[in-house]
Design a protein that fits this description.
Bound molecules: cytidine-5'-monophosphate
Distance between the termini: 30 Å
Number of domains: 2
Radius of gyration: 23 Å
Largest sheet: 8 strands, mixed
Number of strands: 19
Strand content: 15-25%
Structural class: alpha/beta
């Protein structure tokens, strides 16, 4: 399937990666029309971009000849997706304001196609409240924000704001519009649980935890990007649904258990990233509990262990657990790997400065006779790397089946 991509390139140093991004998009069957902003030309030449895209570069809204060949409105209609990579803070602000001072922002206003931005900027600029407010508005309008990644930056500093690697962007954009491409999990069924659960005490109160769901959503998104048919069973979170993924919303651990078993059928891989409550109130009080005494007792009973129950099925899928711990991380995780009879477990430290409700994470993956460390990275990039390892172990276990060509996804330069 050919996918028409309008690739907007704005003026950030990450524009030097644009020729590689064009190549990656074309490898996945995309026809790429580049639209550069004036400042992008300071970082990458239109000659190089024209050579890799095979199409004349567009940059000027007032270029009569180019407009006669394909007007900005025709370009906006031609696009199956508009991708801006790198997207500067300035371009984000221009799109939020709804202005159309140049060709790229005019196309964004005129297109009905999905729009995705891969931000790239200094980490202080990215965390600036103005940029974060713009990110939120863009997401609320349905614009997809890809990344950014975390790591060393061109300015010599380290932090969040690095553009995601071209292959990760290409894979996400193709998945966004339903073209799965040549993914590592092509044709496989994956079920992921994510987020916290809520255990009702009475009609207005519940017990929950600090899980944001970001890691599970990133895992679901990465699996979809790699061609899998993904069902995401999600507790209550404040995140946009990943494109191309079937999302089943649940509240309690019991609901998550039922929804997971309903979805599991002929699933190949089960990834339990949810922070499921261990205990729930023994009974839900029907009316709001009034405060009378100085103290009150709440009787709690164990919730079902979803992961262990899936791993115990006769035809269990390849099962991957997560272990969020505040201490003895790998020891506890190894214990769970054995006790719950898992194929892999992803162990990570949680606490004040790590793990829950953050955009980054580090992890150690453990299996029967081995382990692998994953250094701190954005949850998007970590999810892609984890998925590669999961796929490798999955195919190693199902030895007789042919493993598709590995889609190389790297989070490092
Ligand atoms: O036992 P613990 O909660 O630490 O195990 C964590 C792993 O088990 C995670 O993968 C989590 O999603 C899963 N789990 C589950 N159902 C529960 C508790 C944990 O699926 N009730």
């Amino acid at each position: 399937m050919t996918v028409n991509v309008v690739l907007g390139i704005s003026g950030g140093i990450a524009a030097y990666k644009a020729p590689d991004l064009v190549r990656r998009l074309r490898e996945r069957g995309a026809d790429v029309q580049i639209v550069m902003t004036a400042s992008a030309e300071e970082f990458v030449t239109s000659t190089a971009l024209q050579a890799v895209s095979g199409r004349p570069i567009r940059s000027n809204l007032w270029d009569k000849e180019a407009e006669a060949a394909m007007s900005h409105i025709e370009l906006a209609r031609w696009a199956d997706v508009v991708l801006i990579a790198p997207s500067t803070a300035e371009v984000m602000a221009r799109i939020v304001s709804g202005g159309a001072p140049d060709l790229l922002t005019t196309i964004c206003l005129a297109t009905e196609a999905p729009i995705a931005l891969a931000p790239a900027m200094n980490h202080v600029m990215w965390s600036n409240p103005a940029t974060q407010a713009n990110r939120q508005v863009l997401e609320e309008r349905g614009i997809h924000i890809l990344g950014p990644g975390i790591g060393s930056q061109a300015c010599g500093e380290t932090g969040s704001g690095r553009m995601l690697e071209p292959d990760v962007i290409a894979a996400q954009v193709v998945a966004l519009i339903g073209g799965k491409g040549e993914g590592l999990l092509q044709g496989r069924k994956v079920v992921v649980t994510a987020g916290p659960t809520r255990e009702a005490i009475d009609p207005v109160r519940y017990i929950t935890n600090r899980s944001s769901g970001k890691m599970g959503y990133a895992m679901a998104s990465a699996a979809s990007t790699q061609g899998a048919e993904v069902t995401l069973v999600s507790g209550p979170v404040n995140l946009p649904e990943p494109p191309g993924v079937t999302v089943v919303q649940v509240e309690s651990a019991e609901d998550m258990y039922t929804a997971t078993h309903d979805a599991i059928g002929d699933t190949d891989i089960f990834i339990a990233a949810a922070a499921v409550a261990d205990y729930r109130p023994a009974a839900v009080v029907q009316q709001k509990i009034k405060k009378n005494d100085e103290a009150m007792r709440l009787e709690l009973v164990r919730c079902p262990d979803i992961l262990a129950s899936v791993a115990a099925l006769d035809a269990a899928p390849f099962t991957v657990g997560f272990a969020a711990e505040t201490e003895n991380v790998t020891d506890y995780a190894r214990g769970k790997l054995a006790k719950k009879k898992l194929d892999l477990i992803v162990a990570n430290r949680v606490g004040r400065d790590c793990g829950f409700d953050r955009d980054d994470n580090a992890a150690t993956v453990l299996w029967n006779n081995g382990e692998k460390q994953f250094p701190t990275a954005s949850k998007t990039e970590l999810a892609h790397d984890l998925l590669e390892l999961i796929a490798e172990h999955f195919y190693a276990m199902r030895g007789s089946e042919t493993q598709p060509k590995l889609t190389v996804i790297s989070s490092n330069d």
